[in-house]
Input
Amino acid sequence: MTDHRIILLCVIPLAAGLISIALINRKALSRLVGILSYTLMLGLSLSLLLKITAAPDSESILVSQMGGWTAPFGISIVFDSLSGLLICAAAAVGLGAYVHSFSVISPVTERRYYHPLMQFLMFGVNLSFLTGDLFNLFVAFEIMLMASYALLTIGGSKAQLSQAYKYILLNVLASTIFLMAAGMVYGMFGTLNIADLARIVAEHEAANKELPAGFKSLAVMFLLVFGLKGAFFPLWFWLPDTYYTVPISIAGLFGGLLTKVGVYTVARLFPLIFASDGTSTILADGTMLGGTSPIIQTILIVAAAFTMFLAVLGAVSQHHVRRILSVHVISQVGYMVFGIAVMTGNALAGCAFYMIQHMVVKCALFLCCGVMEKHAGTDDLDKLGGLLKRDWFLGVLFFIAAMSLVGLPPLSGFFGKMVIIREGFFEGMWYLGVIGLVTGAITLLSMLKIWSYGYWNPDQAPTTNKPEAVKASCKPAYAAITLLVVCALFLGLGAEAVYKVANRAGEQLDNPKHYITAVLGDDAYAKVDELIDERIAQEPAGPASADGESLTLVNPEEEATP
Output
């Protein structure tokens, strides 16, 4: 269904960034423009998400073809359940981190290009979630990364510059590989449109026809690129020190958004396109189940296992709040990769739900850390202590966010983990399920470590600032943290409503028909249906079993043979 309003999700932050450039050194006006931008993005994305949630499956994907050029020849902007959930969460996270920064960022840092960069980063993130072709995904990545490079070095400290060098070098390398791989995809298929690529792969699956030679190599190249951006094992080494050095509000924004863009691209592209091996199974009702490449699935399984377990061990061994939270970003990404590795509709739905709740919760925890540092002048757990006596409200907010991250029911982290781990056991990946449960237990240990040392410890550490002065100066920070914690509570207590949207996102990723027809037109899937009909005619499908399941084509003559 066509709806040109979705492009406003990119236009709003771009326009706000340009206006903020003109308002350099005018702090109050720059803040007003920024808040207005994030609020408009949040309101618009929520309204669009509610629209597609109420629509039938055939109208549940909104598309805008730029310049009136029809796909696959023009630029497609696509808003479906997955991108809608992520953009809503990203807008909430961006608003929270931005408002929080008013309390903690230094005037020197804020005075120059901080406000435009925060808007340009959101422009790149939103475009990454919305774009319908690989080349514009590359462009969106570069916009997002250029803004993140500047935000990473905005304080100008020696530690920031040393970490920025590593971060920039690795991302430039990944971007180079991305561009090369995209060029080879175009040479192989003659298109970069995601829906068109999904159509081609679906036709190969329907015909049980092998994909071109080198397709799996391209898939591995893309997995390398997106794994580096998403901090998958073993490509995570750039993240902990990078997030540790930036201003805490920016760390919250990065922790909430940047790795999720990498995870999103894997969740978007691999079930639809790059995880296919060209084979399929036809159910009795004519539904096609595409085959999964064992190589790609094995890489994802290994990445999920090591990302979850090794990272959480690294987190529990740390003694600084920022480092614990930074390493936990990696650990929680492992659950998302777990959901993608299982590659069923339910597992992908669990991954989508877990992504949005992690964006909100992780940012909230970083922002809590910022106020903790205001109290004690440090994030060293040995030098905190007794914060619950000084600031019980911050303690409550931190505890809710921490238990949401752990997955304590009925908080938000429980539902995504439950679905992903359950699907892992159902699909025979019990070992990943066990690692996920152990990782959750160690996550609880690390969060209790922060709570016991920083808040519950009766031996109150020396304070840098009086509690009253901190509370007075951090009113925007408290408002931002409260906003995100309320969102996290809604995702937990209202999980049924949110999970319905996530479930549709999983179905759309698992079955590409609606995505393909929404972008390319109703006739785009006709050849796939013809090929499926031909296979059914050649090998008539037997009746479905009593429980409605039929996983293979059945030849009646063969069935009658003793």
